[in-house]
Write a structure and sequence with these properties.
- The complex is a heterodimer.
- In chain A, 17% of the residues lie in helices and 39% in strands.
- Chain A is of the alpha+beta class.
- By secondary structure, chain B is of the alpha+beta class.
- In chain B, α9 packs antiparallel against α10.
- Chain B is elongated and about 115 Å long.
- β12 of chain A pairs antiparallel with β24 of chain B.
Chain lengths: 762, 587
């Protein structure tokens, strides 16, 4: 269709050649874009291509589209003509096919050249010259910019104006290790970044009314040798109030603010005074202690933007207020004019909510499912912004994978959680002023899980968990108590019969209690635009240590709590991710996952829920889940069908992926994945699965390529993976490059793994 | 010799007279002009003399003679006007020079009739006594082109008298700008990059520049307008509502002020022969047209707007008030500051109301100060809750320039209010929004607002993370003269999409850094949930999620990704749930 269209256009032009010309107003030509010619003086390090690209951004206006040297869209513009109606076919065609002519009279080369020159100057390429001119050919005009680039100036000295004010001293002191450095190239952006940095700093020192723009840099570019001296100072126009550090006078809180009533009385009289805070809670919905905790500063302290931001962030993150408005006003005291009153206008969200949620999902273990849940939430249970939520859910999932033969699961459960915006520890008070309020979560849950054709499990959970962030980019979770009790029952006849033949299957339905405690730490590179991005996550998960010690367990499943054997293990996980931004919007992304689970004494293997699995769309993409490992073992269809998971106690996984933009929202990737899992014991998968000294020989390797489409809310990913090393083959035959046969249907069926998923793999 | 001298003298006189008539004409031509070109043209010794070169009489008699120059045509290039006179008589009545019905025609053959006498006094002083009459006489006829700071058509009518001397003529009378006059004045383009650097950096040479020794703490000194009393003239230019004057206030975007009005302006020339105007041009109708990328919005001028001339036309002060009607529901403006709206009024918050966005342009015409105000429609009946909420909110906005600017931006660009957010109150964010008027035009305002949002996006993270390195992006964008893409940035303002990361901190909050990271393509976002509000109030949400952690204890560790629909109902009292259901059923 499109080709036809272009061809048609071409035909039209050959018939009615130069026809745009006759439409043009007298003396006008069509603008045909700009050419930039760069001439570099010796010593210029700026790459011509990069420079051209940057300068091009200054070129205005945007020229019309040309096809075979003809502005075909303009031609349509004239031929279709001005439509009479706002909507209608003519309007539609004009909009779709045509564009208005960009006439030569709108091209102002002088201004553009000046803009280019100031761009160069802002980057420190002083004395560079840009001239702009237009050249006419036929009825077209082209702009030509000649750019004569001189070398970049570097900073020779950095000084400050003589100024004895406290503010100037603070600034000068702070600037010492700043962005501007002697020897660096001069860049306006550096000066501005330095101003902002200094501004942010003094705002933590009481200078509420300060502004980066009050700092000026005097730049002397006449010192010779392509160098500049920079002298920093405060502008003369700086308002008097910006020169002074402010102290907090009063803090007023209005926790039931609404626009439907006249603005509240901001005077302290009549308000409840707690710990220096004035609280006007007319509806008595909140305990004063909540604000004592959330507001991290008090009257008498010097103003600091850190305190302002932390307090605001804490209030926002309570989840109890839908809108938090924070203002600072000069107190207007006659004896001390440099005092501020802070006011918090809080609009509470509705206290309770009911939520119905319907999800459709796909799991990496090849299950597709749907879940319906009903959530109820109270956002302020005990007047301290504690959140109580109760969730009822039911779901169904099915797998179409051949190996598990339409396995179906049903789950129904209930879960109640209570969240405190603080460290809630009995008999302990902890004062903190972190950017986010810490959270304490108490959770109790019960679930019935029915694996159709096999068995039912009842799962009881109890959890006591703290979660806090010291920095915005690190997160800690500590769960001193994480109990899980699994009680199996209702085995189907089929399963029972099979288990009689193969008793190891009973491992699936062991009753077990996990007396867990858990700690995890996450770090993320703070700057999301940094070229090198890191993500580090480590966790320790333990169960039954104390119980094991007390009971003196020696044999697997020997000792019991509440008449149920408890799991005894220590588990250590590391997840390391690294992304490097390469030129041309390429990204190299890597992930390393290490998992070590050590079941001991009362356990000879990790509970199924704690086992490591491998394969699938976010893991080793040349193998589907359940297809690989542990070790050199190849899971049989029987294993895949009868075991909950093909899991191991140890895991190694390394992924490396090069992501490349294609066009628009489409991008592509090539990847290599390496990894495997191993067991500690020979119980389920025999010797082949056990971790040995030379287990590195049992690493599986896969490679492939993928396409990703980012539809904003949803990133759809299709990765095609091919195994190139299969650890279950005999040693020496594990590399399978020689067997790659894309023409062979059978090979394709076995080895082309299509991974369709939502979101990036890591 | 004596004759010779007279001859030369008289010749000189004629030439001089013509020169000055031309000057006079040009003075009129440039009534509407603030352009440099016109001013240069008025300077003595410029090429005007050449125009009348042909008319210098070659012969002269002792007492009375008539000079009849041939047909002469000349063009005053900056004004594009072509004049001819043919076979007109100049009577030399020694020592006077007489003009009787001397007619100059413009290209449309409209006349300027000159009658009068020039009488040489002592020492090269020539006294004038002349009367001129113009009939639709063209003084400007220029089409649009680069570097044309003045273009359009203008013609004048009227009678005026010229007395005094040639060196300091006194002109009196009324000139009427004719109907169909349409003049466009282009104000100089501002260099964005140069302006950007100006406020941060001053280039100096310490050999010639003394650094300020010690800074004095001063309050900002308000620039006082220098009140010139320029001239003593009885010449008036009368403009009525039939003439259209366009002022292109921002040539880079094409922001245009198109006005009509009444004026009686006193016209004069200063010692440097520069045109001076004094008086008020009271605007009765007009529009301010905003052009930014693909936006075209019109503000309708309000009664009471005026352009005040007090000297050079370029120094004119404007005082303009214009209204843009934004028909939009008030809900987004007020809803987050109201806990709950009574159900019987809920619907009214969703109904569009024609809000008035008032644009004020004040100060020098070259760099007007821009400010905005948002007002309720003049005559509209609202229910008590809505009325109350809007009154309080608009009052609040009035005191908060930054918030007003943000809302105006929302109304102009997106056609709706931008819900104020709690994160706006982080120190460091929004601070740039109170000073967006530097551009001197509404599109300049939009550009700065977009710049501000761009840096805000980064600053949002900034305050989240207490880091300061992100502003570079915005700065370098602006430094490249790169106009921020409206689409891209408004998507950042899109409150409907929210991103939350992790299980524990995703409590009904927008995660600014996660959102920016997602938009920028930084991808280490484990357990990420993207929520998109299908309805404004967030009652219906579509979400996509990826869970790395196992929520269900069974089946081992498996990444789950999915798509879901969420229906949420918030309530304080249980019965509120049922009112919602009832309403739903009734619909």
């Amino acid at each position: 269709m499109r080709n036809f269209f272009i061809y048609g256009t071409f035909l039209l032009f050959t018939i009615t050649s130069c026809s745009v010309q006759r439409f043009l107003p007298e003396g006008e030509r069509i603008y045909k874009g700009a050419t930039i010619k760069i001439e570099k003086k010796p010593g210029v390090k700026y790459g011509s291509h990069a420079l051209k690209r940057e300068l091009k951004l200054a070129v205005k206006p945007k020229a019309n589209k040309f096809l075979f040297g003809q502005p075909y869209k303009v031609w349509f513009w004239y031929v279709i003509g001005g439509p009479k109606k706002v909507s209608g076919l003519k309007t539609f065609f004009r909009k779709k096919l045509s564009e208005p002519p960009v006439l030569s009279s709108t091209v102002n080369t002088t201004v553009i050249a000046k803009n280019m020159q100031s761009f160069l100057e802002n980057k420190g390429y002083f004395r560079s010259q840009v001239s702009g001119d237009t050249v006419n050919e036929s009825y077209f005009t082209k702009a030509i910019y000649k750019v004569d680039v001189h070398p970049q100036y570097t900073i020779k000295t950095i000084g400050w104006l003589n100024d004895t004010s406290t503010l100037a001293k603070e600034l000068k002191e702070r600037q010492r290790n700043g962005i501007l450095k002697v020897g660096n190239g001069y860049r306006l952006s550096d000066v501005e970044a330095e101003r902002d940095r200094l501004d942010a700093y003094v705002k933590t020192k009481g200078y509420y009314y300060f502004n980066a723009d009050y700092i000026v840099a005097y730049v002397d570019s006449t010192v010779g040798n392509n160098q500049v001296d920079i002298i920093l100072g405060l502008k003369n126009e700086i308002p008097e109030k910006s020169m002074h550090a402010y102290t907090i006078n009063e803090i007023g809180i209005f926790p039931d603010y609404t626009l439907l009533l006249p603005p509240p009385d901001t005077s302290a009289t009549g308000a409840e005074s707690v710990d220096g805070l004035f609280i006007r809670d007319t509806l008595h919905q909140f305990k004063p202690a909540l604000f004592k905790k959330m507001i991290t500063y008090r009257p008498g302290q010097t103003y600091s933007s850190n305190e302002q931001n932390n307090t605001l962030n804490r209030l926002i993150n309570l989840g109890t207020f839908k809108f938090v408005k924070n203002t600072f006003e000069v107190a207007g005291l006659s004896d001390d004019p440099y005092r501020l009153n802070a006011f918090y206008y809080l609009t509470p969200a509705k206290k309770k909510s009911v939520q119905v949620q319907l999800n459709g999902f796909s799991k990496e273990n090849k299950f597709l499912g749907t879940q319906l849940s009903l959530n109820w939430k109270n956002r302020n249970v005990f007047k301290g912004a504690e959140q109580l939520s109760v969730k009822l859910y039911g779901g169904f999932e099915i797998s179409f994978a051949d190996s598990i033969q339409n396995a179906k699961n049903i789950r129904v459960g209930v879960e109640a959680a209570l969240n405190f915006p603080k460290f809630k520890v009995p008999f302990l008070r902890y004062k903190e002023s972190m950017l986010y309020p810490p959270r304490t979560r108490l959770l109790a849950g019960y679930e019935i899980f029915r694996k159709l054709d096999f068995y039912t499990k009842n799962i009881y959970r109890l959890q006591y968990e703290f979660n806090w962030k010291v920095n915005p980019n690190t997160e800690h979770t500590l769960s001193p108590i994480a109990l899980t009790y699994i009680h199996s029952g209702k085995l189907t006849d089929m399963f029972s019969k099979q288990a009689n033949i193969d008793p190891v299957l009973l491992a699936n339905v062991y009753n077990e209690i996990i007396l867990g405690s858990y700690y995890s730490y996450t770090y993320n590179t703070a700057n999301p635009f940094a070229k090198n991005q890191w993500y580090v996550s480590g966790s320790i998960d333990m169960s039954g240590n104390i119980a094991g010690l007390i009971s003196g367990a020696k044999q697997p499943r020997q000792k019991k709590v509440f008449n149920t054997p408890f799991a005894q293990f220590s588990k250590f996980d590391v997840d390391l991710r690294y992304q490097k931004t390469l030129p041309n919007k390429f990204d190299l992304v890597n992930r390393l996952q290490l998992g070590i689970g050590i079941p001991y004494s009362n356990s000879n293997m990790l509970p199924f829920s704690k086992q490591y699995v491998i394969g699938g769309s976010s893991s080793l993409r040349g193998f589907t889940s359940r297809q690989l490992g542990p070790g050199a073992y190849q899971p049989t269809l029987y294993d895949q069908r009868y075991f909950q998971a093909i899991g191991g106690d140890y895991k190694f996984l390394f992924n490396s992926e090069l992501r490349m933009p294609v066009f628009g929202k489409l991008s592509s990737a090539v990847f290599v994945d390496v990894g495997n899992i191993w067991t500690k014991d020979t119980l389920l998968f025999g010797k082949a699965g056990k971790l040995k000294k030379d287990s590195y020989k049992e690493l599986a390797v896969a490679t492939g390529a993928g396409l990703r489409f980012d539809a904003s809310i949803l990133l759809i990913r299709v990765d095609l993976g091919i195994p190139i090393r299969k650890p279950y083959l005999p040693e020496g035959h594990r590399w399978v490059f020689d067997k790659i046969a894309p023409g062979d249907g059978e090979w394709r069926k076995q080895n082309l793994i299509v991974n369709i998923a939502i979101g990036y793999p890591f | 010799m004596a004759n010779e001298k007279i001859l030369t003298n008289t010749g000189g006189v004629v030439r001089f007279v013509f020169l000055n008539i031309s000057v006079l004409l040009i003075g009129i031509f440039s009534l509407l002009s603030t352009s440099k070109a016109a001013q240069i043209f008025l300077k003595p010794g410029s090429s005007i003399g050449l125009l009348v070169k042909d008319t210098i009489p070659n012969k002269i008699s002792n007492s009375i003679d008539t000079i009849q120059p041939g047909t002469t045509r000349y063009t005053i290039a900056p004004f594009g006007t072509t004049y001819t006179y043919s076979k007109e008589h100049i009577v030399m009545e020694y020592p006077d020079i007489l003009l009787n019905d001397f007619i100059i025609h413009d290209s449309l053959n409209n006349p300027l009739i000159i009658n009068g006498r020039i009488h040489p006094g002592n020492a090269n002083i020539f006294n004038l006594a002349m009367e001129m009459e113009a009939k639709d006489f063209s003084i400007l006829n220029v089409s649009r082109a680069i570097n044309n700071q003045l273009y359009g058509q203008a013609a004048i009518n009227g009678n005026f008298q010229v007395s005094g001397t040639l060196d300091s003529p006194k002109i009196a009378g009324n000139i009427y700008l004719s109907k169909q006059s349409s003049v466009t004045l282009v104000l100089p383009e501002k260099n964005q990059d140069m302006n950007a650097s100006k406020s941060a950096v001053l280039f100096i040479d310490r050999d010639t520049f003394t650094l300020p020794e010690k800074k004095l703490a001063l309050s900002l000194v308000k620039a006082t307008l220098e009140n010139k009393q320029p001239f003593n003239s009885n010449l008036f230019l009368i403009v009525d509502t039939n003439s259209v004057i366009n002022i292109i206030s921002d040539p880079s975007t094409g922001d245009k002020l198109k006005v009509k009005g009444n004026a009686k302006l006193n016209v004069g020339l200063d010692s440097a022969k520069q045109l001076l105007l004094s008086g008020a041009y009271n605007l009765t109708a007009g529009i301010y047209e905003l052009n930014y990328q693909f936006f075209r919005k019109q503000f309708i001028l309000n009664e009471g707007s005026a352009i005040i001339f007090k000297g050079l036309p370029a120094d004119a002060q404007i005082n303009i008030m214009a209204t843009y009607i934004a028909n939009t529901p008030p809900k987004e403006l007020v809803s987050n500051e109201i806990r709950s709206i009574a159900p019987q009024f809920a619907q009214s918050f969703n109904q569009p109301i024609p809000f008035r966005v008032i644009l004020y342009m004040k100060g020098s015409i070259r760099q007007p100060q821009i400010s905005f105000d948002i007002k309720m429609p003049e005559s509209i009946q609202l229910n008590s809750q809505l009325q109350m909420a809007l009154e309080h909110k608009l009052l609040q906005l009035k005191k908060d320039v930054a918030a007003t600017n943000k809302q105006v931006f929302g109304l102009l660009v997106m056609g709706r209010f931008v819900g104020e957010q709690s994160v706006d109150f982080f120190k460091g964010s929004g601070s740039g929004f109170d000073n967006l008027a530097s551009g001197g035009s509404v599109s300049g305002f939009l550009l700065s607002a977009l710049d501000q949002i761009a840096s805000e996006v980064f600053k949002g993270i900034n305050t989240d993370l207490n880091l300061n390195s992100y502003r570079d992006f915005a700065v370098s964008d602006a430094a490249q003269g790169n106009q921020p893409d409206v689409d891209l940035l408004t998507s950042f303002l899109n409150n409907r999409l929210s991103v939350s990361v992790g299980r524990n901190f995703g409590i009904e909050r927008q995660d600014g850094s996660a959102k920016a990271a997602k938009q920028k393509g930084s991808r280490f976002l484990p357990d990420v949930t993207l929520n998109y509000k299908l309805s404004e109030d967030g009652k219906y949400i579509i979400h996509s999620y990826k869970k790395d952690e196992l929520e269900s204890v069974l089946d081992g560790y498996a990444t789950e990704s999915g798509l879901g629909l969420i229906l949420t109902m918030n309530y304080d009292k249980f019965k509120q749930l049922f009112t919602w259901l009832k309403k739903y059923n009734n619909n």
